[in-house]
């Protein structure tokens, strides 16, 4: 009798849970397939939008894990498992982790924003992080990596980048290189301008259009200052800057144009003091 009762219970359990088990297995299989397709579509979309190669796998795995966790909660609910406590525990755990890693999460969120809005990309010459200047060599999950002219590696947290002014020096394709050259007040302005224009035309990096700007910008304390702005391709910024600095000095020397430097002239005046003697100041010398 007991055996018959147990068989009836087993049969009832099979009738009750086999359809749920089959449904759960089908849900898992179909769910994992759909999640794989969604993850693949997201990664393809990021690739088409030129998202950084470092961030694409991370975001893809993050989306995949998140969707799989939701799928497992759904399957557990199909078996009548109370998921409210699990959700509450998961929420508390996520909150604790978020509080512990709030700085890192801020860097991560800022990195995502940088990749979405693209104020700069790898290879751009930028000034970020409140004054750090260099070429972008990597945009990572938490940091942006710069390479300076003297081959230093600067790692700037992404939240510092987004909270400061971002200056993309080379991101427009072509750019003007602003330089200032001073000449003495006794030198010929037109002659100096001609020398600067000749150097700019000889520079292999300077573009013919737009024309190089050479204008008197300031009458300084000891010099007449020219603003010089040759136009170049963005990648040629530093070679152009160095070329102009060196060759303008050389050509100024050949043309007899002086470059003043701070100096001080001291003029000393001489005053002749002649003693004045009045009659009252002469006293007779007593005879011995």
Can you walk through the features of this model?
By secondary structure, this protein is an alpha+beta fold. It folds into three domains: 9-100, Helix Hairpins, CATH 1.10.287; 119-168, SH3 type barrels (Roll); 174-255, Alpha-Beta Plaits (2-Layer Sandwich). 49% of the residues lie in helices and 17% in strands. It contains seven helices and ten strands. It has helices at residues 2-48, 55-78, 84-100, 102-117, 158-162, 189-202, 237-255; strands at residues 125-128, 132-139, 143-147, 153-157, 167-168, 174-176, 179-183, 213-219, 224-229, 231-233. The strands form three sheets. Strands 4-3-2-1-5 form a five-stranded antiparallel sheet. The protein has a three-stranded antiparallel sheet with strand order 7-9-8, covered by helices on one side. A hairpin with a 4-residue loop joins strand 8 (213-219) and strand 9 (224-229). Helix 1 (2-48) runs antiparallel to helix 2 (55-78) and helix 6 (189-202) crosses helix 7. The chain is rod-shaped and about 130 Å long. The N and C termini lie far apart (169 Å). The mean pLDDT is 78.
Provide keyphrases for this structure.
3 domains; 288 residues; SH3 type barrels; five-stranded antiparallel sheet; alpha+beta; Alpha-Beta Plaits; three-stranded antiparallel sheet; Helix Hairpins
